[in-house]
Structures are given as C-alpha cells and as structure tokens.
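F.,

This is the one I mentioned.
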C-alpha cells in the first residue's frame, strides 16, 4: 500500500455499507469518512495505545473508508414492493372481517332464508298449476273424442234436451 503523507499506510476498505451507515444525519456509525470501531469514541491514537489487542493498524491511526452510497430506488418501485407485500395481507384481513359482517347482516343470511322460503312457495304453486293444466288438457281431449262427454256438458251446463225428451219441472218447497 502506498504510504500516507505522515508515513502511515493507507487502508482501503471496500465493503458494502448499508444506507443507514452512509448518512451521518441518520445515526450512522461512519463519521466524516472515518470508520469508528466498537468501544471507540473518536478513533484517536490514545484509544489505540490503550488497547494493544487491536493490532498494528489501530496503532498507526484511524481508518479511512471509501463509502459509496447505495443508489436510491425510485419511489414507484418502492411503493410497488410495499403493495406487493401488504396488498394480499390487506385483502385477507378484509375478507376475514367482511365475510361475517355481510353474512350476519339483515341483507345477508336472514334474507337468504326468506328468499329460499319464497322460492319453495313459488315452486309449490307452479306444481299445482301444472297439475291443473294437465287436468284441463285431459278434459279437452275427452270433449274432442267422447260424444257422451259433450252431451253431458250440453245437458248440465246449457240445459239442452233431445227432441224426444220431455222435461218436468216441479216447484221447490221451502
């Protein structure tokens, strides 16, 4: 390594520094290009001399670090990442809370029961109407094909008689 102007070797640190360490205003450990060690407040020679276990690099002076800040991610990409993580969770929470509310509300399960009862009533009415229609179709078929059925209706409903018949009418006693 090339020596510094005071004779101490220059230590090049090439490590990836997280964003919080690259900005002193955000509570970073790096300050003005110097790397602070744990337990060291200023990184001075006095601290290095008091702790011989730190090695020769600590005795020669403070370390300088080339800190390259991480490129900033655009907001729309960050927002997309947040939505990608939290949107399914939000939908799940909404479903867990919303489903019982919708089911137990007056427009939910009670209305469903009422509509099912109404449907059963309408189906029963349809079945009775179908039976009545079949009876009427049978009656129409008998009137077309059976002359005795036509005669009975003519006598009962219209009061008609054959030419050879005589009708006797009696007064009704009260």
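My design for it:
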């Amino acid at each position: 390594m090339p020596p510094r102007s005071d004779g101490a070797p220059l230590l090049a640190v090439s490590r990836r520094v997280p964003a919080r360490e690259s900005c002193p205003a955000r509570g970073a450990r790096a300050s003005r290009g110097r790397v602070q060690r744990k337990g060291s407040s200023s990184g001075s020679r006095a601290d290095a001399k008091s702790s011989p276990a730190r090695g020769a690099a600590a005795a020669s002076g403070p370390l300088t670090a080339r800190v390259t800040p991480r490129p900033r991610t655009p907001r729309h990409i960050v927002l997309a990442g947040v939505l990608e993580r939290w949107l399914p969770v939000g939908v799940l929470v909404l479903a867990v809370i919303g489903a019982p509310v919708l089911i137990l509300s007056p427009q939910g399960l009670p209305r469903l029961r009422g509509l099912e009862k109404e449907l059963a009533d309408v189906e029963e009415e349809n079945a009775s109407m179908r039976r009545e229609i079949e009876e009427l179709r049978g009656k129409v078929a008998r009137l077309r094909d059976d002359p005795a059925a036509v005669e009975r209706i003519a006598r009962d409903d219209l009061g008609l008689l054959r030419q050879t018949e005589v009708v006797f009418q009696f007064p009704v006693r009260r």
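Helices lie at 19-22, 45-50, 56-59, 75-104, 109-145, 147-158.

Talk soon.
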